[in-house]
Amino acid sequence: xxxxxxxxxxxxxxxxxxxxxxxxxxxxxxxxxxxxxxxxxxxxxxxxxxxxxxxxxxxxxxxxxxxxxxxxxxxxxxxxxxxxxxxxxxxxxxxxxxxxxxxxxxxxxxxxxxxxxxxxxxxxxxxxxxxxxxxxxxxxxxxxxxxxxxxxxxxxxxxxxxxxxxxxxxxxxxxxxxxxxxxxxxxxxxxxxxxxxxxxxxxxxxxxxxxxxxxxxxxxxxxxxxxxxxxxxxxxxxxxxxxxxxxxxxxxxxxxxxxxxxxxxxxxxxxxxxxxxxxxxxxxxxxxxxxxxxxxxxxxxxx
Length: 303
Description:
Elements: H1 18-21, H2 24-35, H3 55-72, H4 76-81, H5 83-86, E1 89-92, H6 95-115, E2 129-132, H7 144-155, E3 163-166, H8 181-185, E4 193-196, H9 209-218, E5 224-226, E6 239-240, E7 246-247, E8 266-267, E9 274-275
Parallel strand pairs: 1-2, 2-3, 3-4, 4-5, 5-7, 6-8, 7-9
Helix pairs in contact: 2-3, 6-7
Protein name: F-box domain-containing protein
Organism: Galerina marginata (strain CBS 339.88)
């Protein structure tokens, strides 16, 4: 009972909202400890990436993202505080969930543009990694091109994106002849790694030679590439990749002359880097040090 009288009971005092009094950096560490660190983005920039996809790690990565989303739904205070943590890594697993995500991220960016607020208040500002791994089937109502267009819209709202991966298993995507140009065209200058995983339908969603050439010309600071036809570019170009360290064409090159691997179009770094290349008749190894296994030997520039 309270001191006000024997028959009155006072309500407990409402505690000061501790969320606002705790620095965002502390909340970030709390959320990370709760969700676990299964992202392993550093693997994209070391020789470990040459081993291919670690499906166990990928499963843990997806579980971590689910935990992050659950933490953000605890209360409004946590939701507002967790934006940098929640949008740091985006995993696109279902086509039907991409459109709502596109709308939310685009609306957040428009609000920043219209109000002049700090760019960091936009959701996409915090995203460093995007995995495009649609595993559900496209439909007549939700067509593959519409989904891929939404993916391009999402990428356009991620100014600090560093890692982009593709691994699409859903049906009907194989009807799309090539990766839409606006997907690579939307990638920011901050991108450091671009990977295609070795999946059956992954061979279908590849860029045209012109689009890939333009992408490499506009992203000279790439560190890691995993793409079957990475060296297939237009014949009249010279591409300089100063910071390239990881090169993994996950399969042998095509025997088709149109997919020829001509390293004469590239100026590659002179320092050590890891590579895994299978030499074919269309490669020109005489002026390039090529190794079938993981290597850290010096690779000379191609004049």
